[in-house]
Design brief:
This protein is an alpha/beta fold. Helices cover 43% and strands 13% of the residues. It has 16 helices and eleven strands. Helix 2 runs parallel beside helix 4 and helix 7 packs across helix 8. The structure holds iron/sulfur cluster. Iron/sulfur cluster binds next to loops.
Length: 389
């Protein structure tokens, strides 16, 4: 047994996990409440390495927000705008295709596309966008739309959620994004995202997508007004649906960003809170293969440390992140492949470039095997902007 665990108050939970027994919600709360972060991390790392070995992944991707117009006004959101606002935006399909074309030149494999709940874009805008992007490169994986966007699109087009999902899939949709889960507990959800879909609706959209044979990721927005019990409750719903569908590829905890919104929280989650949340998620979500340390919300330095606290993935290059940065995130808007590989190697893991479904594309045995001048580095060095929005 790891010496950190021998005298830890969490020793019995390590024994349970090592015996492949499922931890309960009460156990998860105990893990959250423990101040023994290193022991917690050791358990999470044990689970992580049992599932994924010594590998840690990243993806070459680009974010595109097609519009920030939204009919809702979630209290925590710094991204949404109304049509009357001067800094609202909406891209044509041609503009989106142009952004994708630029990003393909730096070898991205995924576009991650979300927007607000637009008041009047027709359903055909979304299907034509997907078709146009697939026409650009049929290998490009399209990870698009949150559950609430799917509900909104279906409602606007007077379609069932299932029919809307089938049409979007037929147009090229590969995966749903996990955004919009926030915190499932009704009282908290109402206080931070009044009018948004319920927990049941979020889970129903993902469940319907999974039952079509498709996959998605899921999230939890933490570090605002929720309690630790609320976090455990949230994870419980995700584990339940995963038991049923096995459609989630990974879980992405999102640390709350406190600026430019209406939730009275002075500071974002601390390093301690970020690491323990990743670690508890890794231990409790025993039916999830992957836990992502989202560098946008925590910075690459802490995301790197998180690779020893249960995370096995650093997310992606992203190129142009708006939603977290409009809420005050201080991280850069993109990461280069070199920076992520170095971070993974220094943490003692083998870097693996992955696709949307966390499947390996390329494993880097040594950092020397990686050509230091990749297209993103070159573009950065020459001052070329990839985020030309
Ligand atoms: S969080 Fe999403 S649904 Fe809520 S206001 Fe912002 S863009 Fe709209």
């Amino acid at each position: 047994m790891n010496f950190l665990l021998e005298r830890s108050e969490l020793r019995d939970l390590y024994v349970k996990v090592a015996a492949n027994e499922r931890v309960s919600e009460a156990d998860a709360l105990r893990l959250f409440q423990s101040k023994d972060l290193n022991a917690l991390g050791a358990i999470a790392d044990f689970v992580c390495q049992r599932k994924n070995g010594n590998r840690a992944s990243y993806i070459l991707n680009r974010y595109i927000n097609y519009s920030n117009y939204c009919i809702l006004s979630c209290q925590f959101c710094a991204f949404a705008r109304k049509k009357r606002d001067a800094d609202g935006f909406q891209f044509s399909i041609e503009e989106i295709v142009q952004k994708a074309r630029e990003a393909l030149s730096v070898r991205i494999t995924e576009l991650h596309i979300v927007g607000g709940l637009h008041p009047n874009l027709p359903f055909a805008y979304y299907t034509e966008m997907l078709r146009a992007l697939k026409a650009l490169d049929s290998r490009l994986q399209l990870k698009c739309f949150t559950a609430i966007e799917i509900l909104h699109l279906a409602w606007m087009a007077k379609k069932s959620v299932k029919d809307a999902l089938v049409e979007l899939r037929d147009a090229g949709l590969d995966s749903l994004t996990g955004g919009g889960a926030e915190i499932f507990r009704k009282e908290i959800r109402s206080a931070i995202a009044k009018g948004k879909e319920s927990a049941q609706e979020y889970l129903e959209v993902h469940g319907t997508w999974h039952r079509l044979g498709e996959r998605s990721t899921c999230t939890m927005l933490y570090g605002h007004i929720e309690s630790l019990e609320d976090r455990v409750d949230h994870l419980r719903y995700l584990r339940q649906l995963q038991d049923e569908t096995h459609g989630f590829t990974g879980f992405v905890p999102l640390p709350y960003q406190p600026e430019n919104n209406r939730i009275p929280v002075n500071t974002p989650p601390t390093g301690f809170d970020t690491l323990r949340t990743l670690a508890v998620s890794r231990i409790y979500l025993d039916n999830f293969d992957h836990i992502t340390a989202y560098w946008v919300g925590m910075g690459l330095k802490l995301a790197q440390v998180a690779l020893s606290y249960g995370a096995d993935d650093l997310h992606g290059t992203i190129i142009e992140e708006k939603i977290f940065h409009m809420a005050g995130a201080k991280s850069p808007q993109l990461q280069t492949e070199t920076e992520m590989i170095k971070a993974i190697r220094e943490a003692g893991r083998v870097p693996v470039q992955r696709n949307t479904f966390y499947e390996p594309i390329k494993e880097w045995d040594t950092i020397e095997a990686f050509a230091s001048e990749t297209p993103i580095e070159k573009a950065k060095a020459s001052g070329q902007s990839l985020a030309s929005a």
